[in-house]
Amino acid sequence: MGAEHEIDPGRLGRVHFIGMGGAGMSAVAKLMLARGVPVSGSDRQDSPALRQLEDLGATVFVGQRAGNVDGAQTVVVSTAIPPEDPEYSAARAAGLGVLHRSEALAAAMHGRDVVAVAGTHGKTTTSAMAALALHAAGREPSWAIGAHVPDLGANAALGAGRWFVAEADESDGSFLSYGPRIAVVTNIEPDHLDYYPTREAFFRAFDRFAATLPEDGLLVACHDDPGSRALAERRRAAGRRVVTYGTDRAADVRVVPGGSDGLRTRSTLVLGEGADRREERLELAVPGRHNVLNATAAFCVAVETGVPAADAARGLAGFHGSARRFDLRGEVGGIRVFDDYAHHPTEVVAALTAAREVAGGHRVIAIFQPHLFSRTQEFAAEFADALALADESLVIDIFAARERPVAGLTSEIITERAPAHVRYVPDGADAVAQAALAARPGDLVLTVGAGDVTGLGPRLVDRLGDR
Q1: In terms of CATH architecture, what is 112-316?
Q2: pLDDT tens digits, one per residue of 121-137
Q3: Which stretches of 234-289 are assigned E, i.e. beta strand?
Q4: Which of 4, 87, 103, 167 is the catalytic position?
């Protein structure tokens, strides 16, 4: 276990969160409140997340000012908070304890056995599924997930049970903080090259993540993904415990696809060989091969914690998705509008492939917003190929997030590499208008990206209603 995991949160005093309205920060704040820790926090804008935390007992500030940290003993920041932030500057000047969000989350895990779910793609859904499987089996888990999970009622909760399921973010190396007993790696594909100096450094970070397991800990790794499979092989060669899953016959838990029907998928999980061979039916209320693999990872976690295989599968059948993961925003005149957080080419492929399954013989129209200038530049050709899977893709301007704009770099770097049905439409409002005009009954429209493109879904539903 990491040192932060041994911090008793009761000794932190009043904890102040800078940027408390964000998905990750609000989850940790919620856990601290559940542990009886006095919490305050601020954000630039008001939000439902802030109001919910205020209802739970937090002191909330809208707007960031140095005086907001008065009375706090510990301040929590994320990688997105710059050193010149007035509250961060005031905290350092006052000599207050400063924790990164991941360190604060590790402290909130105090006294629990941790399941840490990592991977370039799928960690939000997989961690949500694992938490739900344990919850449905009566294990009373704790969890911290980077999105609201309707089936669990929250993005974070402190349960009375032994296990704590956490989404472990590799983007800034913070997934090394948690000291898990079970580590899940869904896949390893290079990303976040604004933080990692090379692709090799990115891959090495996952070896370091696996090395945070205790000697008797378990690595659950996807055998279908070359990066996680290689990690599993290295861990096995070192004599460590590993369970692999996937459609490959060599996987320890093998997935045999059984077809799909709209939003539902059916599969069979094969465990063991010969006389020890067992099969378990896995029926999901979410589409896509990628979600079958995510659910299988969650199944492996639940079984490792002692949940009977049949109970684990039954719990997973009750999963209906998490916010911004193939999330239905509305239906008008037979046209369905979904929203998805996909922001890496592999994720875009998975989202559009699932959209194809759900749309059946009808068309798929995508509105895509690239996220980060560095990622767009690195993967422009891959994004072009991915977006070609839709019948029509409208690519709006890049969402800068934490980065400064790069002069002369626009989303055209993607569309100029793509077929004619992938078009650059800089303004989101124009993209909504064009999608509404193009969509016909039975079509599926998908807003895609990690930025504010999510706000276009409701606008599109309204536009279709007006039409």
Answers
A1: 3-Layer(aba) Sandwich (3.40)
A2: 889 999 999 999 999 99
A3: 241-246, 253-261, 264-271, 278-284
A4: 167
